[in-house]
């Protein structure tokens, strides 16, 4: 069931390319099957998930063998890596690694050879991947994703994006997250489209790849827009997809102007995979992430525990149900139970839904909904106004404790040639007086993780004076 190793374009040498290394479908299938035969029965296999062709072979081998695959971020520190290896129950490392003091045996990848017999197809309910969350509130948690959930998510996106074997997918995203690994590798394998992973997601590499379908995070698309000549080379693409973090409206508009394509925005989490997306044949509004894919349902719940209006303005916590959900947090039954309300997974994300069922993510309930002076303010709404100012390159808005207001709105801004007073007044004019930042802090750059998400916890620990 996962993955499908074929393509309508035939069995060319460049069916899968990662950082310049290429294999055909048959070569990938042969290497993965021969490797899978060596690890049958393994309870879980760890992989150094660097952006290499070897990572793709190892992941496919694990799926073929029915062994849960544990992608380990290549930049994980010793403590985080040790936790992942221990918590996941991995019994071996598949492929090479450079980790010091790793207690697990290493099984090399096979490059050629025939499997001694046809390998049995794992069941749909079998665990495919154990992906560890970022661990912003403690040790990373292992998210258990079944083969059926992966298949449902990828098939739903293929439908929404009209993704076919005729496409060539191009991206340069990390191979230890849902975005780069599940969508960006397993999606191409399941659909049967050609895959070009550029190694690094540079504007030059994207321009040279000649793809029809491109994946990127906002940081990537910002870099593409900063290179108009490279951006122009994407005009022949069919679809540009952005995710993993909110796409600033100016970047959306610049990308559309430079390439002729309004980008597709979508939403998901490791626990849910991608559940919402604008469609290839649908309307694309900046900041809005579309409707549920096939097999997914959503609802918005207010602070009082009741459903909120779908009026495009009323904020509620987004809950998700359906075929793409994870099976739970590994070894964490209490955390799993706390994250569900019956069949509904509590995402912790705040959102609004309009009358047509289109969703907009406002931010994290815990850090992007600011309760100030009796009002509830979405940080993303304020950020969008600030980013519309031509002098502002980046910004992040947080709520800091305040004896009078409960929380005060503080904006951290990367800008040149504009004053704090001008930006505060801009928000007051465009939105509402109570949504104005109480202070603006100018900084050289925003702290971000590997997927381009702003680390607001770090900002909260920074001095909040102008």
Helix content: 25-40%
Number of strands: 26
Largest sheet: 9 strands, mixed
CA radius of gyration: 22 Å
Which ranges are low-confidence, i.e. pLDDT below 50, for 5 or more consecutive residues?
none
Helical/strand content category:
alpha/beta
- Tell me the number of helical segments per DSSP (H or I, 4 or more residues long): 13
What is the averaged pLDDT score?
Answer: 90
Strand neighbour order, sheet with most strands: 2-1-10-9-11-12-13-14-15
Q: Termini, distance in Å?
A: 56 Å
Tell me, briefly, the overall form.
Answer: globular
Report the sheet-strand fraction. Answer: 25-35%
CATH architecture of the domain at 16-184: 3-Layer(aba) Sandwich
Q: State the CATH topology of the domain at 16-184.
A: Rossmann fold
The CATH class of the domain at 16-184 turns out to be Alpha Beta
Key attributes of the depicted protein:
about 475 residues, nine-stranded mixed β-sheet, Rossmann fold, alpha/beta
Protein topology:
Layout: E1 16-18, E2 21-23, H1 25-39, E3 45-48, H2 53-65, E4 69-72, H3 78-88, E5 92-94, E6 106-107, E7 127-132, E8 142-146, H4 147-161, E9 168-171, H5 178-191, E10 194-197, H6 203-209, E11 213-216, H7 218-225, H8 228-232, E12 239-242, H9 249-259, E13 264-269, E14 273-277, E15 291-292, E16 296-301, E17 316-322, E18 328-329, H10 333-338, E19 340-341, E20 344-353, E21 359-364, E22 369-372, E23 375-378, H11 379-387, E24 392-402, E25 406-415, H12 420-430, E26 439-442, H13 456-460
Parallel strand pairs: 1-10, 3-4, 3-5, 5-6, 9-10, 9-11, 11-12, 12-13, 25-26
Antiparallel strand pairs: 1-2, 7-8, 8-18, 13-14, 14-15, 16-17, 17-20, 19-20, 20-21, 22-23, 24-25
Helix pairs in contact: 1-2, 4-5, 7-9
